[in-house]
Amino acid sequence: MSDYIDEASTPLLFDPSCKRNLTDFLADRVAAAPDHLAFRIRPDYGLADGPLTGVSTREFYDLVTSMAKGLLAVGVQQGDTLGLQGPTSYLWAVADMASLWVGAIVVPIFDTAAPEQVRFTARDSGMTWAFAGTDEQCDTLREVLVENVPSGRVWRLDLKDGGMGDLIRMGCDVSVDDLEARRVAAVLDDTATLVYTSGTEGRPKGVLLTHRNLIGQVGNIGADYAELVHSCGRTLIFLPLAHVLARALQLICLAEGMTISYEADPAKAVASLTEVRPTFLVVVPRVLQKIRERIAATAAEKKLGWLWSHAEKTAIARGRHIELAQTMPHLTMPAALRVKQRLFDRLFFRRVRELLGGDIDYVLTGAAPLGEEMCLLFRGMGVEVIEGYGLTETTAPLTGNRPGANYSGTVGRPEPGHTVRISNDGEILAKGVGVSPGYWHPRDNEAAFIDGFLRTGDLGSLDEAGRLTITGRVKEAIVTAGGKTIFPHLWQQDVETEPLVAHAVVVGDSRPYPAALILVDGDELHRLGLTDDHSSPAPTVVNSAQILDRVATSLRRANERVSGPERVKRFRVLAVDLTPGGEMVTPTMKLRRSWLLEAMAPAIDDLYVNGVEVG
């Protein structure tokens, strides 16, 4: 019997045809639980500092419909493209739902997007209306909107004059019946939102997501993850709402009644966690990596680095035991492991849980690979981390692990209503309720689908239980001068378990052997006292013997796990600016690989002459 299969499916748990369009979730929720605590936000609708204040479902609904009346009054038509740029906040959620209420196609734009990126998105989408968070963003969007249509308008994401407050006043004379007629006009296969890819491998593409896509995901994931998202739970959203993962989470929480809080500033996220005390979080892997780094650094400052090393090994061992116990319920934890677990829980693990707010039950991670060790480590420390996988084109998760069926190193089974197939070339193909019907420009669809399945561009395998493991990217395949094809994903992931390493990038196309650029966070090195300067936005070569030794050790370990032709022989360590949304990484901290390879071409040439030998 083979250990691998070519295709896996999970049936629907929720039929999207029971809803007319996405706004039904809020309409149904306010009818069922109008006084439920839907949000806890800071003063001035989350735009000012201060204690958290509760907002009921009814209060949210009233603000959404008041704004929707204003959009109707100023002439927003069903099918108009409407931009939304601003910080992760309550008013972002209001503007999003109000726009959907009148049948507009919402085009989210990352708050950190450069003006030229904003102009591209606005022009490409034919944007006619927009919301923006700052005067500068408003000016940039107005510049393009007047090119598209003379009547285009931009409103600030606040309730003051010139902002959303104007819309509310303009809509006072719109009747409830007229608004309801517009709300129910959109049907399941109408486009709800146009989401642009991050452009990690070239020109951003506009992804069409329908009401059916979003309803299918919201309903099915809510049903499948009832232990995570429920009306007694709390979450903090600090990922950009322009990203499909955070936006889907917000919609699921609204539908299921989980209380939402927001934090737009990543630097304040940890402080907000202790105040919100979430039961569930969605994060990108880099957030967990940074928590690990901070605990390790604190231990080192107290001359307890050796003890933290033992604590990590204990947590990973316990995490592995918990994983095995899923299929072996009578498995007994060794007594020595129980003793060490209790000791290290008092010294370290409890602190990790406190950093996450103290009440955390589950953490869902996606958008980038987590790694088996990281999953086991946090699980062993008492934080259940569930890894999933998806794309903008799949409306967030395509696959995911589940409580009680959570296996490190995999991204789980297909989500309800989806089929995952592995092509003859190893590419992951997807079909199902969340899969986009295509792209804004028909030309982008030409190579995007095969036999009705979306081509994800990722490589993977399915085990006999239907769990997916990601093994690489099609476009990251390296063919050396000797004709050897290398997929460096697992090697890179292995090296990235070293806390200093943010990204490992293997190069070697048409070269005699693989080499690697190792990217470390310049700010983190400065904080640890390992470099003197962290102000340069440009990548800086790191020559510290201490850092090179640590990195070389992780490279040698990774080399031992791959075949001879796949082993990296030279490397260079670079301190880089990893500000989310900067040149190096996307707002969700995915590496802009194509940009990096082009920008670092001279450094890659030099790598094969003067690079550090792995040894």
Would you write up a description of this structure?
By secondary structure, the protein is an alpha+beta fold. The strands form eight sheets. Strands 1, 2, 18, 19, 21, 22 and 23 form a seven-stranded antiparallel sheet that branches. Helix 3 packs across helix 7 (164-170), helix 5 (115-125) runs parallel beside helix 6 (135-148) and helix 16 (489-495) crosses helix 18. It is globular, with a radius of gyration of 24 Å.
Topology overview:
Layout: E1 4-5, E2 7-10, H1 24-32, E3 37-41, H2 43-46, E4 53-56, H3 57-74, E5 81-85, H4 90-101, E6 105-109, H5 115-125, E7 129-132, H6 135-148, E8 153-156, H7 164-170, H8 176-183, E9 191-196, E10 206-210, H9 211-224, E11 234-237, H10 244-256, E12 259-262, H11 269-276, E13 280-283, H12 285-301, H13 305-325, H14 335-355, E14 362-365, H15 372-380, E15 384-391, E16 396-400, E17 413-414, E18 418-422, E19 427-432, E20 438-439, E21 449-450, E22 453-463, E23 468-473, E24 478-479, E25 485-486, H16 489-495, E26 501-507, E27 515-521, H17 522-527, E28 540-541, H18 545-559, E29 570-576, H19 593-599, H20 601-610, E30 612-613
Parallel strand pairs: 5-6, 5-7, 7-8, 11-12, 13-14, 14-15, 27-29
Antiparallel strand pairs: 1-22, 2-18, 3-4, 9-10, 10-20, 15-16, 16-17, 18-19, 19-22, 21-22, 22-23, 24-25, 26-27, 28-29, 29-30
